[in-house]
Every structure is written in C-alpha cells, then in structure tokens.
Design goal:
By secondary structure, this protein is mainly alpha-helical. It has one domain. Helices cover 79% and strands 0% of the residues. It contains 10 helices and no strands. Helix 1 packs across helix 10, helix 2 packs across helix 10 and helix 3 packs across helix 10. It is globular, with a radius of gyration of 20 Å.
C-alpha cells in the first residue's frame, strides 16, 4: 500500500497539546463507523485470547503477529479516511504485503522481552533469597540488599517497557505507509516519541484517566477505549510524520 501521506520517515516536534488532539481525532475516526471499529477490535481480542490459550506457541505467535494486525489497523484507518468502507478483512491487510517486516518487528520485540524477563527474573530471585537469608540471620543489611535488588528489577522492567513502547508506537505505520525497514522503523519511532515526550506525557495522563473511567461500568468502556486507543496510533503518526 502506498503511503496515504506521501512522506518520508522524518519526525517533527509538535505542541504538547497535541497529546489531547490525538485522542479527539481518534475519537472522530471512531465515531464515523463505531460499529465496525468495535467489531474489528472484538475480532482482534478473540484472536488474542485463542492464541493465548495455546501453550507456549500461541503466546509467541501473538507477540510476533500483533504488529502485523496493527499494520492492518493503520491501513484500515487510512482507508476510512480516504472514503472507503471498512470491512472485517481490513484487519488482515498487514498479512498481504507487509507480513515479513511487521513480523520482524514482533520477533525483535519478543526476543528483547524474553531477555528482559530473564534479567528481571534473576534479579527478583536474588531479591527473594537475599530477603530470606537476611531474615533468617537477622541481618538488616541482607534484607535491604534484597529489597534494593527487587526495586532494581521493577524499575528495569518499567523502564525497558517504556522504551520499547516508544520504539513500537509508530513502527507499524512507518512500515506500511513509508516502507521503512523494521529496525529503522523502530529507531525512528523511538526518536520521534522522544522528540515529542511532553505530548506523550499528556497523552499518557489522559489514557490513565480514560482507562479508569472505562473500567467503572464492569469494564464495558474498554469496548470503546481499545479501538479509539489503537486509532490514536494513526492520528499521532499523521501528526508527527506529516510533511
């Protein structure tokens, strides 16, 4: 699919207030065909659940394929914006022409996640035994060391998760619209997110508020929040990478 935006992958800085605009623009896209966007998100949810219950292989497949589905979601958003009619099959557009590069993004993320999980597990195990040993010996130093090790594991997990979130946010759109190679797309996504970190902070604060509100009525609000959230990846991409 040719880029609907016709631009190279060169990010620009936007005002902090755009973090709010991404939500409003995503909401506008959603309301133009709310029913179909909800259907697409439910189909994606069902696929995710089915893959998740398959031991080992299912979870690995989901991690690798999620950027492929996101690529399809980006193309579906561009299709609607261009006046096209949404179809369930649009969710699978990423499998047609961009399967390999999008799957590479998923594979790289999976490998990095596994490495981080191992590191966090080792640090967490060290924290557990440190606290256990310190407690049995009555050593405050051992307990403190164990707690610090656990804190490092938590901070590391959150920090790396944040970094990879930045690297993944724009990557599928860059692949499908700008034909950027997987690694370069992740680098460009991270750089663009870092360049617009203030807007993303506002975006994140709004997300936290919306997620709380969506969870109140038995979590039913997520039926709307999920598709709108995914559409903000498209609206923010247009804003940051527009020429």
């Amino acid at each position: 699919m040719e880029s609907a935006l016709g631009g190279a992958a060169e990010a620009r800085s936007v005002d902090a207030g755009r973090g709010l605009s991404w939500w409003s623009e995503g909401w506008t896209l959603f309301t133009r065909n709310a029913g179909m966007w909800i259907v697409l998100s439910l189909v994606l949810l069902v696929i995710s659940i089915v893959l998740s219950v398959i031991p080992i292989i299912g979870g690995l497949a989901l991690a690798v394929l999620f950027p492929v589905f996101m690529g399809g979601w980006m193309m579906a958003a561009a299709k609607q914006e261009a006046g096209g009619a949404l179809e369930v099959g649009d969710l699978f557009l990423g499998f047609k022409d961009k399967l390999s590069p999008l799957a590479v993004i998923g594979a790289l993320t999976l490998v990095a996640s596994i490495i981080i999980m191992i590191i966090v597990w080792v640090l967490g195990l060290g924290a557990f035994f440190g606290i256990l040993a310190g407690g049995s010996r009555g050593s405050g130093g051992g307990i403190i060391a164990g707690l610090l090790s656990g804190l490092v594991a938590i901070v590391l997990c959150l920090g790396v998760g944040f970094i990879f979130g930045m690297a993944l946010w724009f990557a599928p759109a860059l692949v499908v619209f700008d034909d950027v190679a997987p690694v370069d797309a992740m680098k460009a996504s991270f750089a663009a997110s870092l360049k617009n970190i203030v807007a993303f902070v506002l975006f994140g604060v709004i997300y936290i508020v919306l997620s709380i509100v969506a969870s109140i009525p038995f979590g039913l609000g997520w039926i709307v929040l999920i598709p709108v959230l995914l559409l903000t990846a498209y609206t923010s991409y247009k804003d940051v990478f527009a020429r």
